[in-house]
Amino acid sequence: MIPLKLEIEGLYSYKEKQVVDFTQLTAAGLFGIFGAVGSGKSSILEAILLALYGSTERLSDRGEKNSMLNLQSEAVKIIFEFRSGKNNAHTYRSLYSAKRNPKKFEEVKPAEHTFYQWEEAVWTPIDKSAEEILGMKKEHFKQTVIIPQGKFREFIDLTPGPRADMMKELFGLERFDLAAKTGSLLRTTKDEKIRLETQLAGLEDVNEATLSSKKSQAQQLALEVEHKREALKLQGQLVKSQEGLQGKYHELQGFLKEWKLLEEKKPAIQEKKTIWKEFLKAKTYLKPVWEQIQEKKLDLEKAKVSAENCRRFRETYMQELQELEEEEQQLRKKAELKPEREAKIRDLRKVIDIQVITEEVNAANAITDKLLPTIAQEKEELQKLTDQLKELEQQLEELPMVDTNALADWKSQATSLQRMEEQLLKLNVEQQKLIQIINNLKASIATINQQVPPSEASFLSWMETQKKSIPALEAQKEKLIQKAGLAAHIHLLHDGEPCPLCGSLEHPQALEGEPSEEIQAITQSMEQAQKGMERIRSLQETVKQEEIRLEGQLQQQSSLASNIQQIKEEQAGVWEKLNAQGIASLENLNHAIQQAEQTSISKTALEKNIKAKRQAWDQLQKRVIEQEEKLRAAQQALIALQSKQQAKREEIQDIAFCQAFFEKTPASIVVTIQKVQKDIDETASLLEGKVKVIQDTKTKQATNLSSLQHQEEAIVATSSRIEQLEQEFKQLMVTHGFESEEQLIALFHHSLDADKVDAEIRQFEDRSLLVNSKIKELEAEEGVVNFSQEGFESLKQQVQVHKEAFDALTKDFTLLDKEIITLEKQLQEKTQLLQVFSQVENRESNLKELEKLFKGSGFVKYVSSIYLKELCNTANIRFMKLTKNSLSLEIDDNNTFWVVDYLNGGKRRLLKTLSGGQTFQASLCLALALAEKVKALNQADQSFFFLDEGFGALDKNSLRAVFETLKSLRHENRIVGIISHVEELQQEIGVYAKVELDTEKGSVVGYSY
Description:
alpha+beta; seven-stranded antiparallel sheet; 23 helices; coiled coil; Nuclease SbcCD subunit C; P-loop_NTPase
């Protein structure tokens, strides 16, 4: 992860929006963020954590967000842009914002937290978390990328279990946790083994001997089947021949039965044939003439009815035409009055126009009457404003000029002097506190040094004296132990008997009693000596820590004194400028500022008043001009309307007729006009319609007369034609042998289907010829007439018996063949199963061994320990340089950190025994090594590391060594950021951001470039 830009607003001491541009900072490789204590340096890291993970290091996620917001801000907003991913190829933006509840100051609404990715020149929202983007949790991020205050040595202080879990999550070692997968594979393999054993148990009786026996039986059955098949084939041919004769015999019997039926139907067919011939003759020769007679009679009846109707309509049309012509004469007289009536309508419309113009004239008079007094009043007000403006401008000219630049400088200098006084007061308080702390530290060191015995020059000589007393006590204890061993054999010494040790027969000075009390006393003395050494070591370490603290406080005191001197010099510079302007005290300065501000306020008020009066004068002047233009327009319109009114009155033709309408309303006149116009239009329309109706009626009358003449002529012609057709019909009856007309009419109406009857007769005759021919043909064929059904049935039964025997034999052969095929498949399957079973047994054995290895995450712990050892080796490259090859780090089998002390024979001791500065060095080296591994894991060409801890605990030499180490990281393409208030670092680092706490703006970020 490489930071690009951070925007902070409303977080902790950041009241106003501040932008931290990391582009030039990270380009330097090593940069710093410096500022006084409480200026807001560490809040930058808090903002990054908040933007990425939605929570800070100082406050919990719930219940404490109120304290996170600046007390003078209503919301917090953080925008963080950074690069991440493989080779840091992708650019992301995180937006975090939260607002206070406007009704409840202490309550903060739920925050909005969104990530964006720069794609195709736009920020696109993405549904990812910081863990997915960066590939690590917040806790690991704080131990490898950004290390806040108080968290620097957290990795060292972790117990082996959580440390291994961290390595597992950080480097993805869960891929080595193969216990579950191995167990699953082992269970699957066991299940497979059981399945194979079950299958092999079912194939236990399958072998080569059984297969050979079955094949021999199959060969014998095959010969028998072939013999039976030949015999059955011959019998089948005989049955097939008899089946053919049986079919022809049955066919002959069928034709004989059909011939008998045909002979029975023959008389009825002959009768139908006779009726069919008579029907055809009547239909062909007489029916067409009879149908014409019927049609003509129908036409004659229709003509008579039509003629009668025409005679009746002739009288009706004559009467209707007479009435229509009378109505037409009346309408035509009324229509002739149209021009006179239209002229009156035009006069009435002019009356309406005159009334409208009269109303407009009245309105124009009203406007002029209203505008004249208004214009006079506004001109009077305009003159008053003019006089007031002249008076105000005179007052403005009389006011003295104010130098705004000088006033701004005075205000700035007054603020600076006040700020410097407050800073001096604050620094003096801090200086007094530091003096008290320094005195306390000196007193504490003196008190501890007083505990050194007067005979000893220092803690070191005291320690050496204490060390020397222990070997003497150990020698005394050894002698007493030997003496105690000899005393245990005193009861074996008897005069005249040899000593078990020296062989002497005499024992003049035998030991008396066991020296156990003396041994116990010496042991207590040794323990007291050891405790004394521990106490000396503890006192020595305490003095060392107090001296380090004293040195730090002295440095801080020097820094405070320097700051106080700098502020006093700034004060002197400000007063030098003020004295040159004749201002000798802060009271004079405030009075000058107050007087200048009062003059400026008065001038501003006058200018504002003049501007307001000027605007009012301009608006009033504009309004007067507009009112005068309206008055002129109204007067001109009045003249034009009066002229137009007179012209309209002169255009009226019948003034006497219109005189009565001048008193009426335009609406009532319009109603009158509409009524007259409607009557004119209706008269014209009715006249036109009446003329058209008369024309249509005359046309219908002519058509009716023509139709009457036509119908009378048709009656005569049709009657003559009927007589001719009746003579022709009688002649045809005689010609074709018909005596009765009723007989013919019955034939005409007969339902006989001639085509169907003809087809039936032909079909009967054709079928009779075919059946007779087939009977003769079958009787002539040999064996058909003498066929025996009983003999044929007996032959079929014999064939069926032979077929059943053949089918049974074939079935036995088929079953045996299938059994042989099954045995061959089972034998092949058994061979394959035995091979697979052997492989599964080997796999089961191997998986059991692997299960033992992977059980209890053993393999993960093993790999984790490898990573930790490699991490330790990488850290030692820097740690040994920092400690001048006197110390190195080591990890044991339990993943516990140890320190190898080369100044004490290379012996090991716990990492917790290191001093504060040494612990910082070890933590720094481990953190750098861990960050380096994360960089390699992410396949990034650059990595970023931010440190906010520990430099105040280092002496100058250690600080120099650490700084050289950090500078060397630039050659490894590593970016390191440092947050500190230590001045030595600020002097060494050329590129840095400076955070200052402004009383009004809050924390303000500046840069060294």
